[in-house]
Known about the structure:
The protein is of the alpha/beta class. It has helices at residues 47-54, 77-87, 103-113, 122-131, 147-159, 177-194, 205-208; strands spanning 3-16, 19-32, 36-40, 62-67, 70-71, 88-91, 165-169, 197-201, 213-218, 221-227. It is built from 7 helices and 10 strands.
Amino acid sequence: xxxxxxTQGLSKQYQMGEVPVDALRAVDFRVRKGExxxxxxxxxxxxxxxxxxxxxxxxxxxxxxxxxxxxxxxLSDDEVTIIxxxxxxxxxxxxxxxxxxxxxxxxxxxxxxxxxxxxDYAGQVDQLLDLVGLADRRDHxxxxxxxxxxxxxxxxxxxxxxxxxxxxxxPTGNLDSRSGEEIISILTSLHAEQGITVLLVTHDTNIAxxxxxxxxxxxxxxxxxxxx
Length: 228
């Protein structure tokens, strides 16, 4: 199966005052199309940093990311932005929904940012809300939805541009255990039924074992890999 994502010697260093801190150290990593992969590790191990670099949200100090055959370091900022907008779907721990927009409007937001005519995608937005079990909540705003429902909206939003890859950063970390299980069940179904490639950062072993492969990070380095 073809690779959709590869990192080579990927490193990220931050300055904490006068002290350099290595968040990632020469990480080599590959994800094949259609895989469901978890990244685990203790707090501060570099999990979120790795995810942000792979999604083009941050720039590495060294090494490179190749996404769907394109080396991000060789592209302009505008080109990386377009790839991130059209080929990568993001799901974050704290949902990141706009409070003044309805569920349907939040799902459609990436289309609006991309300059698309929303009227052309009304049916697709409704299908995605139905897919995540929120067809009857399309006109509700975030403060009218539970945490689990808000995260379902975020998943639908991540899928609206039909991305090649979904990156989920602790998507169950702000939810109770029942809601968390519902969210991982949705992601598992999307992977199984539609072949969507999912890369998931989590600290929860039970969540990670829904994935096919688990990568363990410690102190910014890959220290182990296992099949779930």
